[in-house]
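Hi, here's the filled form for the chain we discussed.

Project: internal
Contact: R.S.
Residues: 317
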Amino acid sequence: MDITYSYKYLDLFVVLFGLVFIIFFVSKRFARQRTMRFGNFEVLEKIYHPKRFQIAFIPLILRLVVIVLIVLAISDLQIVQQGFVSNTDFVLAIDTSSSMLTPDYEPDRLALAKKTTIEWLAKLKDTRIGVVTFAGNAYTQTKPIDDLELVSGIVDRISLDQPAGTAIGEALITSSSILHGTDRNKTIILITDGRNNIGVNISDALRSVKNEKIKIIAIGIGSNENEDVTVPTELIGLNATAADVSGLDEDTLRYLANETGGKYFPIHDAQSFKAAFDSGVETKNVTQEVKTYLLIAACIVLLFEWAFEITKYRPIP
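And the returned structure, exactly as it came back:
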């Protein structure tokens, strides 16, 4: 975040600052002389307290604050920060087959995908996100909505799906169907560690995606070698058995991305995962004008100064 402002009113600032000091102390001097001439000294001695001397400077401080706020307001003060912006509706298509519990990432692939997704969602504004999970079938968890806290909760509750398999084609068909009809750009973020081995073939799925003019950002997590998947602890005792699972099909993921104008990201660590997500949205410098807020703040401080002067806290000269 950067703060920019103009120095063109610096001289005015110095002059006003000095005038406030001069007027304050001159007025206090004349007021003290009037008090000495006409005051009831017995009463003054009873109510005088050393803290009154400190309180006497509060109006000065408040007036100086007002000067600072007004000069800043007319000095083109702006707050510039880089933010994520998007004219895109997204669907997160997340692989929830058993191989996603492989612990080659901490604590496992699925947990890393969920954590990174939730962190990415926290950066977004005014964006609609849908969620699809898939194993042997694809399941719509939510259509694209702009309640990103609700979407984060849905992602956080994702767990393994049944039946076994990796239906990438089904996931793409389901994702494209819930993006149908939007007048915004459309992107599917596909996260998987396997290859399409059940359901709709990739060619048919790609045809559906291209008809809807959807871009695919493909994120490949895991190895492209066949893997032995250990039975997860929570499935032990439920007749679950370990199985050989086909490794990551990078060629197909790269093909899907290239054919739709997207990009393929092989994941090596948490940082590359975050970079893959961030590629889906643009970043630009967002400038926020703060003139109105500064003038409102100046008015509020003036009200405090006025209230201070007419209450029992009004300082004795």
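Let me know if anything looks off before we file it.
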